[in-house]
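User: Need the bound-state model for fe (ii) ion:
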Amino acid sequence: MANTKPLKPINIAKRYKHIKPVPRMPNFAAWIEGVDLTKPLSEPVKKELRQALWDFEVIFFKPQILTPKQHVALAGVFGPSSDGSYFERNVHAPELEMIVFDEKRPPTIDSWHTDISWKEQPPLGTAIQITVTPPAGGNTCWISTTKAYEWLSPAMQKYLETLSAVHTWEIASFRDSLAKKGDEALFAALREFKPVTHPVIRKNADSGRKYIYVNSGFTKKIVGVDRHEADGMLRFLFDWFKRPEFMVHHQWETNGIAIWDNRSTQHYALADYWPHLRVNQRVTFDDPRNVVQKSKDVKRVSKDKARTKKILTGA
Ligand SMILES: [Fe+2]
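Assistant: Bound-state model below.
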């Protein structure tokens, strides 16, 4: 049986005046037409790009050649650049991660995941450009965990809202990559990035829609639930996500661009092109609201440290 709740389509004509979203699926995954990303963007265009990301969760642009700085600026439309992960950095823009796979470096991101959900405050979203495409394959799939939530029965939705889950990079391929760099790199990461807990159901502060927040890449367990039951529930959810109704399968053109809301989507980069070369340039961006909070926290902590020093030293 299909979902019993009828779809309410987003009214594109009413909502958008400066860009043209063309949905690839109902209320999910849209091409964006009518925007030249190599030129400075006006505020009304930026505002509608943000709206499109909240409405469609992943947005696509036909090939446009962006410089590293233009790529960083595009991500900046949605939020300040975040720290990113362990990938190499572009020499012209340290915010830009170079995810390069070839014969000697086999692909490692062929797993369903939400970027960096193993942090307390994962990035809000990600903007990528595939600058070298393999002769065939190398597609990326995204799923909407908003849709996955909305299609569940009310009783299941209610139950999942009571749960939290533990996320850690230790169950991902990062662990092997770090181990290759030596014990110290691995120990440093273990010390710095401890497992974190997130609610299983979260609400997108921008769209107001609820979504499921567990992923097979980084979610280790459900808190306070017997391991066998928790494993069964996670297996069900990971399987549920893969319904074709929740998924868009994207074939890249060289210099094509995609931006996604990292809260309510998961993605999977197919590894079928190996041993050919594929170059993915990525900028992750933070939620501006978290950055304001973080800077307040930093200021508070340094104020506290100064006060402590004063007390201890009498200075
Ligand atoms: Fe990713």
